[in-house]
Amino acid sequence: xxxxxxxxxxxxxxxxxxxxxxxRLEKDPDALDLRTIPSAVGGDEKARHGIVLAKSTPAKKFxxxxxxxxxxxxxKCPDLTIVPPHFDTYLRKSRQLMDVLSDYTPDMxxxxxxxxxxxxxxxxxxxxxxxTVANQIRERVSKELGFTVNIGIxxxxxxxxxxxxxxxxxxxxxxxxxxxxxxxxPLPIGELFFVGHSARKKMENxxxxxxxDLAACNVSYLTRLLGEKYAILIHNxxxxxxxxxxxEREPLNKGYGNSTTLSHDIEDLxxxxxxxxxxxxxxGARLRQDHVLCDCVCVEIKDWDFHSQSHQTTINNPTDxxxxxxxxxxxxxxxxxxRTPLRLIGVRTTKITEEGYxxxxxxxSEQVRKRKEMEKAVDHIRNKFGTDSVKRASFLKxxxxxxxxxxxxxxxx
Length: 413
Description:
Blueprint: E1 7-12, H1 15-27, E2 39-41, E3 54-55, H2 57-60, H3 70-76, E4 81-83, H4 87-101, E5 108-112, E6 115-119, H5 130-145, E7 149-154, H6 157-164, E8 172-174, H7 180-184, H8 197-205, H9 211-216, H10 219-226, H11 228-238, E9 256-266, H12 269-289, E10 292-303, E11 308-319, H13 322-336, E12 342-350, E13 353-354, H14 366-385
Parallel strand pairs: 2-4, 7-8
Antiparallel strand pairs: 1-6, 1-7, 2-3, 5-6, 9-12, 10-11, 10-12, 10-13
Helix pairs in contact: 1-4, 4-5, 10-11, 12-13
């Protein structure tokens, strides 16, 4: 008899903010817990540019949202404490989480740095009932790692992800087929995964305000409004239909890349470049960690209408430099993006070469050589002495690049 699918979605509550707090408390037990005050992880507080990457629960009460410009957040809460991101810390905490989750099933998909899907179909009988096991995982993460997670329990990935977004923090929720009508259909249409601002406005204009309204809508009518591929996808989602398997991402040796699904549509180049920067920082640090170089940079985007695009270019000389990868990614995005609101941005590097086999570039400037050595030195010092041992300047808005490696963020490839 075929087993019924059972999927867990694990989502860290305010991941970057939580991990920042845990790291500070590990170093100094008397440190102020950022989770208890209005605080945010973002860019440069003094320059007031960058975006909110994560916010505390007290900050949320001021209406501060992930993805909004820091200058807007500070208007809402002038006393907001802003701390810079330390992506190497976040990657380390993420690995600790994944190590715990791997104890429960070999069928795991790391969806992002702070999210994972577990296919518990074949292993749940080893541990107990679904809700009991989910609470065991939640409590273990809190006790052993010091931060909290929400866990969604469902028969597929879409419903599990929706369930994990129910009331937070530190809770487990179920969303099985018989619960969709009561738990999911009354939610606003914008709460459905992959429904962005523009699509929401279009649907609201014709009277579709809840997920239940969408589920009841004729697909052919939606197709005329939103396009066939996207209309079918979100209609299936509204009905709780998702057959996507839980599977590992492609091996790292084929390339190094990061992508992130944005909590809000991005429509301006400055905000998009801020996201690119955080993604490129991870790519550069991981290339250097593995002593490899890339010869090709690719930028991938997906807009609110589910249309995907990607452009790539070859670099003149193989590199592991964050700055060069970022500069290249920014040029690519500027060239091919028509400013249609974005829901996903990704950076991928390919044509990987081992460092020792790379031909020496005789025309490489002294400035470039110093920058590369500096980036490697920063990686080494941070790995040895901790995240806060070295801090760098951010990229300036007038396109002059100041060497900057914040660390590591989401990695999918």
